[in-house]
């Protein structure tokens, strides 16, 4: 899984849910709503990649959000 493919997968979650979830502008880093975490977890199982949550916050509308990054694994 490349960083760009990871960003595109998270962006597709946002498109499917009509949200703004997607890349933050930092390579391999994406922001999404907490309720979309299950979608990302399902995609990670299907496409065999690992991600990590690096930040949790509440946006200006009071929604729970997370920042995730593609986990870089050696010899995967």
Strand and helix layout:
Layout: H1 3-17, E1 22-23, E2 29-33, H2 37-47, E3 51-58, E4 64-70
What this model shows, in words?
The chain is of the alpha+beta class. The protein contains 2 helices and 4 strands; from the N terminus they run αββαββ. The chain has a 4-stranded antiparallel beta sheet with strand order 1-2-4-3, covered by helices on one side. A hairpin with a 5-residue loop joins strand 3 and strand 4. It starts with a helix and ends in a 6-residue tail after the last strand.
Distance, first to last CA: 10 Å
Average pLDDT taken over every residue: 92
* Topology pattern, helix = H, strand = E: HEEHEE
Structural classification: alpha+beta
Q: What's a quick, concise take on this entry?
A:
With 76 residues, the chain is an alpha+beta fold. It is 34% helix and 29% strand.
Keywords:
four-stranded antiparallel sheet, globular, alpha+beta, 76 residues
